[in-house]
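Hey, resending since the last one bounced:
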Amino acid sequence: GKRTDIRPGGAGPRGRSEMQRSAAGGSETQQIIHDVAYDYFGRRVAVCSSDQWIRIYDDSVKTAEWKAHGGSIWRLSWAHPEFGQVLASCSFDRKICIWEERGDTEESTLASNGAWRLARELQDSRDSVNHVTFAPKRWGLLLASCSADRKVRLHEAPDVMDLAGWGLTAEFEADAGKGRAAVAPQCVAWNPSPTEPLMLVIGMSDGSAILWKQQENSDGTVNWVRVLAFDSAPALSKPPRGVTYEPLAHLERIHDLSWAPDMGRSYHLVASASRDRTVKVWAMRHAASPDAAGGAGGEAGGAMWTVQCEAELPHHAQVWRGSGGKG
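The structure tokens again:
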């Protein structure tokens, strides 16, 4: 895990910033920090750790902290600022919490949590919630999560002015019924393209990465279909009789995924960070594209996609996070 000795910019001439000094809540015992999330503008930072607290820093100065869950908090995600100051957290306690900063709270300057208030708890998971992330703003307040119960879930607040009105809109098994009971999703990343349908890449505990997309049916209903699996070593021949070949993006669990912004490229770029001490960069292309060659082909619902590993960046330790710009 990551320890509290983090070094954000703007620490000043006196050495460590308040963010570094107080990340452990003023205690001599250092808590393991599981996630550090910057807001859209890169000025606010939310930190979560194994002590079950969330801490907010503005320009490296702590402005709020509160006990948010009944177990270690794994991940945080900021909503787009168009929807206000909204933060989602997920935890070992099987809950997703939606937090809102309300500027009209009179006691906000006195309480340690500032103006932050719990808007909604989502308790659909039957096991630890490993990851939570907001969709690009064009989809409204849409939240994806994945859990140790092997499920990916989507929650939505149809009325962005009512943060108590969240509902479960989709739920599917991340491994698509492959029957591997010990394999669970670890992280998810949204397709940031403003012109394409909803798509997710899901990183799994066995090192596989799977592309899913939302499909609209002829009767007007929608469902999620598995498109393809990333494969770092595509099989050149059929496996021996009786042996099932499972494509793997990494040799060990995937800790994080980052889908690069749409910059006018004819293909998508996705980075994956793994316990196997590597970061890999993947190019996903439509098969109809003239430069789509090699790589793993699409599965049910996605014969038009291919994916190929374009770069492998070795590290001296397991890689916990990967991040790209907003474009």
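The CA atoms of residues 44 and 58 lie 5 Å apart.

Sorry for the duplicate.
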